[in-house]
């Protein structure tokens, strides 16, 4: 099983509009961060896309991705779902809609905001067949589990994907570590984790919390994501433990 990190940045990306790099070195290509999305791929080549980031089109082009087999959403915040229309071209050569999965609340909000995607409109076909993750079916060669994580006043869904004898956790946009998260995320081969900045934040994990989740879940490897302009790539690499990697756009690695 393989991880492809399409985007590794926070909601405004790095640099922010205005060419604001903050503490990030503009000369380091891995500091240029688009909004978060990942692809998980099994040994058979089947792909799951997690979140349709605002930058999805450019991410898919940059990584030569022309199809995925299913889509999962962590929650409905704009940076995680507003690239949904870029899935339209993936429907062209399919006889049926693309399978999509999210929590009950996220399903309701996505259907309300993007009704044409899930219902079709003006002669255009339905793009995605959306269902709640409570079913936990086997999805295109993957099994999965999930947990709702505190994200300030709302929640975000954390996912555990398993295939080919490996496990990968995607836990972005959380502000507290719960017992349910520790249960779901234990002993993963790869943990991809929210890490907004070093200072504490009311709706996101900071570096200390991200590393804590890796230790408590006994993750074999941890990859940091959703980082803002204060998180310079090279400085952070020198700061984290040996089994922790600083994520970047285009990172590809085995679980």
Automatic annotation (TrEMBL):
It comes from the Bacteria. Pfam families: Lactamase_B_2. Residues 34-226 form the Metallo-beta-lactamase domain. This is MBL fold metallo-hydrolase. The lineage of its organism: Bacteria, Pseudomonadati, Pseudomonadota, Alphaproteobacteria, Sphingomonadales.
């Amino acid at each position: 099983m393989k991880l492809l990190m399409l985007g590794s940045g926070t909601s405004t990306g790095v640099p922010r509009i205005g060419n604001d790099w903050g503490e990030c070195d503009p000369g380091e290509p891995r500091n240029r961060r688009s909004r978060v999305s990942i692809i998980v791929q099994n040994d058979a080549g089947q792909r799951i896309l997690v979140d349709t980031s605002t930058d999805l089109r450019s991410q898919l082009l940059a990584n030569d991705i022309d199809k995925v087999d299913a889509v999962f959403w962590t929650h409905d915040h704009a940076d995680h779902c507003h690239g949904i229309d870029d899935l339209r071209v993936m429907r062209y050569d399919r006889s049926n809609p693309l399978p999509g999965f999210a929590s009950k609340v996220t399903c309701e909000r996505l259907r309300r905001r993007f009704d044409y995607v899930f219902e079709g409109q003006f002669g255009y076909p339905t793009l995605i067949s959306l269902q709640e993750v409570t079913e936990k079916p086997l999805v295109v060669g993957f099994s999965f589990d999930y947990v709702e994580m505190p994200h300030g006043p709302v929640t975000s869904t954390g996912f555990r994907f398993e295939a080919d004898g490996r496990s990968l956790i995607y836990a972005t946009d959380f502000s507290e570590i719960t017992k349910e998260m520790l249960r779901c995320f234990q002993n993963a081969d790869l943990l991809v984790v929210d890490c907004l900045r070093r200072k504490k934040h009311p709706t996101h994990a900071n570096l200390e919390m991200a590393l804590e989740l890796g230790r408590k879940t006994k993750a074999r490897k941890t990859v940091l994501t959703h980082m803002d302009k204060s998180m310079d790539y090279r400085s952070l690499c020198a700061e984290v433990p040996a089994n922790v990697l600083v994520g970047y756009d285009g990172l590809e690695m085995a679980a």
